[in-house]
Amino acid sequence: MSETAKNPTSDFGHVFGFWLLRLWLSVRAILAGVEKYAGTETSDEVVDIGGSPNEYGLTASGSEKVYGLDQYSGVPRALYDKFLDEPLVSEFALNLYDTALGPALILVGLGLLFGIATRLSLFAMGLIYISLTGGLILLKQDAGVAWLGIHIILVAFALMNVQHNRLAILKKC
After folding, report:
1. Residue 73 backbone dihedrals phi, psi, to 5 degrees
2. Which of 2, 105, 140, 162 could form a disulfide with 33 if both were Cys (CB 3.0 to 4.6 A apart)?
3. Side-chain half-sphere of 29: how many Cα atoms within 13 Å?
4. C-alpha gyration radius of the chain
């Protein structure tokens, strides 16, 4: 008889470890997706001198981070322009990827967070990270490739330990 069968609480370390990994990966994906909807708004305000607007036309510029559908950019503009110069990336595919990346990250993150088809959510997350890696390889961004490699290792580790998953919806998937 296995140790876990004798004492079901001996498995709690694996369960809690998987929950932490699942939580970290899901928060990482969700926030990365939400950040695709972030932008900045700038404003110029007239500088007050002595409590009243100055007569010299002095203004102060300010900017703040805002979120919204009109701020969405799946692929940052600087990278987008570099991808347009790549012969392996068509503009049609780039536009499709740019449109889908943010929502895809949010969906797989939420799927993983709530344990909805955890294996499939992790696999989809791994595929997204592989696609991001491919883009960074084309742009010769080796530091980003290494960073995403760590993400792939975490996803693979989670997949190898998914048998410790608890509180899941569609647990077999």
Report:
1. -155, 105
2. 105
3. 32
4. 23
